[in-house]
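Entry for the shared binder. Reason: the reviewer on the internal report wants the predicted structure included alongside the sequence.
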Amino acid sequence: MDMKKRIHLELRNRTPSDVKELVLDNCRSNEGKIEGLTDEFEELEFLSTINVGLTTVAHLPKLNKLKKLELSDNRISGGLEVLAEKCPNLTHLNLSGNKIKDLSTIEPLKELGTLKSLDLFNCEVTNLNEYRDNVFKLLPQLTYLDGYDKDDKEAPDSDAEVYAEGLDDDEEDEDDVDEEDYDDDAAPGDEEEDEGEEDEEEENEEEEEDDLSGEEEEEEDLNDREVDDEDDEEEERGQKRKRELDEEGEEDDDD
């Protein structure tokens, strides 16, 4: 896919002025030139053209807000003086894997006063004696060269930092969601209603227990009364039998 078509696809129905990041990696540049980019990309802050066959950056449009430019794995061997004019606010430049052989090729970068990070991995220039010291002297505005500062301290991984910040935001969002769920489940006043319902249920249970105990007492009283009645009946039968025996005895005496 050529670069123009790739840019059209990357726009996704947006206007060029809406685009802040543009990744064109592994597409095809005709004649080793940047094509399809115009001054309309006035808000562009990040441009990546890795492995697209570039031999020159002369056709870059004016990109005043561009901060990061990825040009690794191309065939660029010079012409870097245009960067100071076209991308005056550049802070990160990656030229790894290009055909840069000597310090004079990167000397024009000293005009980029905001440049903080430069990568030249897999370029022949890195094989020169005292390469690092000479580059820092040539470009005193640099903080990091090939990912390390003058004291060989590694540069922070900005992508990792952004990712970590994203995780923190996600966790906060999840916490917010949990709190929202909790609030939805227990809106103001719901807790009091729940407590009232629980108290009412307890009262009902106590009333049921009272009713059950009352029924049990009634059953016991009824059983007691039945027993008493049986005892009374038995006593009456005994007295009746006694009277009958007494009457029989009196009749025998009369005879």
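Summary line for the report: Residues 159-188 have pLDDT under 50 and may be disordered.
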